[in-house]
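## retry 2 of 3
previous attempt timed out at serialization; input unchanged, resubmitting
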Amino acid sequence: MGRSRSVLWGLIFVAVLVNLPIGHHLWSEFRLSRSGVETTAEVVHANVLEGGDGPRYVLQFRYDDELDPEQQLWPVEVDRAAFASAEASGEVDVRSVPGRPATFSVEGETGTATGWVVLLVIDVMLVLLVVLLWRARRLGRWSADGEEDPEDPDQARPF
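## retry succeeded, writing output
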């Protein structure tokens, strides 16, 4: 296998690895929309976290025994209205995939775009790297077989 194929497969591997979270998120959303069931969960903790960008409303809820035999606590950040409603009633409406309590959605759920921005930046860097390698190969600075005779340099190359 030539050097160019190794580099290409390496870049493909890195691109797939970097984008696994996107694939997992999309798969989870698909499963949730297709086979998710509505349920009511008990709110165990309701916390307001103060920060520089304003308050963040975090709920921790627990499913009933049938959906989650381990009775694990599940945190979720929600908007103010959903927080007030859940705090007052002690319950929150949850859509989850049966047998997979970690795949859930809560009415009023919020999140940050930080992870998506990081993935986008890494994807742009990968595309720029591919373009750079392609341009270098086209200009003859990097040959497919990786061989270059140091005694007879290519005069068409500027460097």
